[in-house]
Amino acid sequence: MTKKITFILLFSILIISCKKEEQVELPRDIAEQAIADDQILKDYLSTHFYNYEDYENLSFNESITGGYNFLKIDTIAGENSSKIPLIGQVKKNSIRVKISNGSFVNHDLYYLVAREGIGQSPSSVDSTYLSYEGSLLNGNVFDQSTSPVWFDLTQVVRGFREAMPAFKSGTYQVNNDNTVDFESFGQGAMFLPSGLGYFSSPAGSIPAYSPLIFKIKLYTFNVSDHDGDGIPTSQEFDVDGDGIADDTDEDGLNDYLDTD
Question: What is the pTM of this model?
Fold first, then answer.
C-alpha cells in the first residue's frame, strides 16, 4: 500500500513538473523578434494617426502653463477615415544592437516630431528636462510624468535615448513667483521595438517582447560630463558604436564614469 501511494505521489509530481516546463517560454531569437516587432510597428503606424491639425495651428510661443497635453493618437476609422496615417509622417532610425555572439542585429525605431523646438538637440547621453508618457500599443499607460523631470539618458532604455537627439529644446522665463514658463519646446513621440526596450524582461505592467510608445515634451537639457574630467559624456560613452558603454582600460569602470 505504501509503495502504491509513493508511486502515485511521484507520478503526480512528474505530471505537475511537466506542465510547469510546458508553460516556460524559451527566449526568442533576437533577429526574428526584431523583424516581428518591425511589422507590428508598421501595422500600428499604418492604422493610426495623431492630431496633426492641432499642431498646424499651435503657436510657437505656447507654453506648458497653457495646459496643452501630449499629442493624441487614435485609430483611423469612421469619421477619422480620411486622416493621414502615422506611417507617412514618422522618420526611421536603424540602431545596431550587439548580441552575445559579437554580431549585430538592426532594430528600427520610428519617431515623430510634431513640433521641433527652437533650441538645440541633446546627445543620446545628456541630461534632459522633459515630461513624458509611456504606453503599450494597446493604449495602456505604464508610466508618465506630466510635470517636467530630469532624465539622465544613460539610465533609460536604449530606444528612448537614441530617439532624443531628434528633438530640440525650447526657451523659458522665470516669473516673479519663481514659477517657470517654457515655450517653443520640442514635442513628439517615439515608437520602439522590444529590442530597444525591455525585450524578454517584463517590467512592471510591461509584458515581455512589448513594443513601446513614448510621447515627450523636451523643455531643456544639460550637456553631461558624468566623471567631471572636462570631456563630455557623448565623447566617451560609446566611441566604437556598439551600443555598449566603453571601458577601454578594462578596469571595470566605464569611460564616461572613469577619470583616469
Answer: 0.86
CA distances, 9 to each of 1, 17, 20, 66 (Å): 12, 12, 17, 68
- Kindly state the cell numbers that stand for 179: 514659477
Task: Give the chain as a 3 state SS string.
Answer: CHHHHHHHHHHHHHHHHHHHHHHCCCCCCHHHHHHHHHHHHHHHHHHEEECHHHHHCCCCCCEHHHCCCCCCEEECCHHHCCCCCHHHCCEEEEEEEECCCCCEEEEEEEEEEEECCCCCCCCCCCEEEEEEEEECCCCCEEEEEEEEEEEEHHHCCHHHHHHHHHCCCCEEEECCCCCEEEECCEEEEEEECHHHCCCCCCECCECCCCCEEEEEEEEEEECCCCCCCCCCHHHCCCCCCCCCCCCCCCCCCCHHHCCC
d(CA 214, CA 123): 18
Cell of 137: 500599443
φ, ψ of residue 98 to 5 degrees: the values are -80, 135
Q: What is the CATH number of domain 30-224?
A: 3.10.50.40
List pLDDT tens digits, range 142-154: 999 988 999 999 9
- For the chain, the domains span 30-224
pLDDT tens-place string over residues 82-119: 999 999 999 999 999 988 888 999 999 999 999 989 99
